[in-house]
Design the sequence.
């Protein structure tokens, strides 16, 4: 008889895998987390850290509901992680501005304002003069903006590392440089994984391998369901603070971090795992950023990077238990919002696994097998 060393094995040490590990370990489970490289070295460290529920979601729906529940968890989770690990994830809640640069964007913003008000969210329309009063370094060419005072951001690498460290504090064993090669199946159940460092067995297996999940899951949730979307970004620093609120526009955002640092993001290119930082990508972002804030021409470039977002065919993550393969759980496909969604994802998946509790949130729209039966889904 094979002895089961772990209650749950989590595949992938990004913000999603680490949040699940933290939540499960805190409940007393014996957790093994397997990461092919270093913890928090992929998308979770490339992210700008925006908690953009109202800014990122263009329509009302299950993702908006999930995201706003997750955003509400940040003050408490950031304080708890700081208490346990000493890592401060730098939660800043000074709001975000969705900018209208063309007439048709004014109409778009107005309809967003209406449905978000109907959901009880705060959203304020700012004419150009009011906008420039709030943010004097913005370009005169910006016509107006929607202001979301409750949005904010964190340091994505710090949050991811804090989840990992807190998971370790509660006993999680983290094995870096351990690549999972396949799932071990036995009579309709997943019982373990094969890796470059041997086989491991657990009562539950969670796939949280981000953009790389397609390879491990292609047989089990249908073809081509998770795919990579490359994003390039850079950070710049000015001698004096130039911006208080995050700017969000089509194709470019600017996130003011502590110490006068600003993250400018991000490009978007689907179906590539390439992580080169290119002249084309960075010059595009710099041009767009200067259109929003001409004063950035004099800012100093601090660093540039690229990361790989995990996208699904309909833009919704896969969350929950596999309906046919026992003991297999999936938490991936968080695309542009994995940092934002990490607290709620960790909680939902941990409740499902440890307590078999059906979360208060309906997970049907996030079912890992929803793309089956040849259903055509719209790419958002
Ligand atoms: P990852 O962080 O990629 O982690 C997956 C891990 O699995 C990796 O460490 C990988 O090495 C490991 N792995 C893969 N295959 C295997 C294997 N076979 N065995 C073992 N380990 C394996 N989100 C926001 O909420 N706000 C933002 O502002 C934001 N900005 C972004 C900006 C950019 C430029 C990019 C690229 C992304 C941004 N995102 C943002 C999205 C966010 O980064 C992702 O949604 C999130 O990090 C996904 O987390 P993850 O844990 O699923 O993936
Ligand atoms: N959420 C910002 C990005 O993915 O670029």
Sequence:
């Amino acid at each position: 008889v094979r002895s089961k060393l772990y209650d749950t094995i989590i595949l992938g040490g990004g913000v999603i895998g680490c949040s699940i590990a933290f939540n499960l370990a805190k409940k007393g489970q014996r957790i093994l987390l397997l990461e092919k490289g270093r913890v928090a070295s992929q998308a979770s460290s490339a992210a700008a850290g925006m908690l953009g529920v109202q800014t990122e979601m263009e329509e009302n729906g299950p993702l908006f509901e999930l995201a706003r529940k997750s955003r509400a968890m940040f003050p408490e989770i950031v304080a708890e992680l700081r208490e346990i690990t000493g890592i401060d994830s730098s939660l800043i809640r000074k709001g975000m501005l969705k900018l209208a640069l063309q007439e048709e964007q004014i109409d778009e913003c107005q309809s967003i304002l209406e449905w978000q008000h109907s959901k009880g969210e705060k959203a304020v329309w700012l004419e150009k003069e009011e906008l420039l009063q709030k943010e004097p370094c913005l370009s005169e060419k910006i016509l107006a903006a929607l202001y979301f005072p409750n949005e904010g951001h964190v340091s994505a690498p710090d949050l991811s590392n804090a989840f990992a460290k807190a998971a370790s504090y509660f006993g999680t064993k983290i094995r870096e440089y351990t690549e999972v090669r396949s799932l071990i199946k036995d009579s309709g159940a997943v019982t373990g994984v094969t890796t470059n460092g041997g086989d491991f067995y657990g009562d539950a297996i969670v796939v949280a391998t981000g953009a790389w999940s397609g390879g491990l899951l292609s047989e089990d949730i249908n073809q081509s369901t998770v795919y990579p979307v490359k994003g390039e970004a850079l950070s710049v620093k000015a001698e004096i603070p130039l911006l208080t609120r995050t700017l969000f526009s089509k194709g470019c955002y600017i996130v003011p971090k502590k110490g006068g640092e600003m993250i400018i993001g991000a490009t978007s290119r689907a179906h590539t795992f390439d992580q080169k930082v290119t002249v084309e990508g960075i010059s595009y972002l710099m041009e767009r950023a200067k259109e929003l804030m001409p004063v950035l021409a004099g800012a100093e470039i601090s660093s540039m990077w690229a990361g790989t977002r995990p996208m699904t065919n309909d833009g919704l993550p896969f969350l929950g238990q596999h309906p046919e393969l026992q003991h297999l759980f999936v938490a991936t496909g968080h695309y542009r919002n994995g940092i934002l969604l990490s607290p709620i994802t960790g909680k939902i998946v941990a409740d499902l696994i440890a307590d078999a509790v059906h979360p208060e949130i309906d997970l049907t729209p996030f079912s890992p097998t929803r793309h089956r039966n040849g259903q055509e889904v719209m790419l958002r």
